[in-house]
Here is the input.
Amino acid sequence: MPNPDGSPHWTELGGTLEGTLIQRLEIDIIEADAQRVVARMPVDGNRQPFGLLHGGATASLCETVGSVGASLAAAPDRTAVGIELNVNHLRAVTQGHITATGTPLQSGRSVAVWDVRVQDDDGRLIAAGRLTLAVREIR
Here is the structure.
């Protein structure tokens, strides 16, 4: 079933969560279309040894959000793969969930750039990311 704006849902494009890092980190994609992707992830199970949310888990959430959105924008004959990711970690989180919201800054035929904002359960900004993606034909 397509999204409300008529764009295909990522699962309709042949995507699967089975055996992926998305599944392992327990990322839940709440909303996904070519203009906005929202995903949520628990802190529990994604901490570093000192009890804080692992920065790599946050970065993986940012890349997931941008990759899903850019792939939906490029569909149905093209997909997007991350080529550069920058994440600024702004606040420590030790419990609850984090929610990432991504929107495109640029959706071109060969390059896409997504802005991703990550918030804690209280709505505080805990990280800001920017993902650059190569848009390419599906083979």
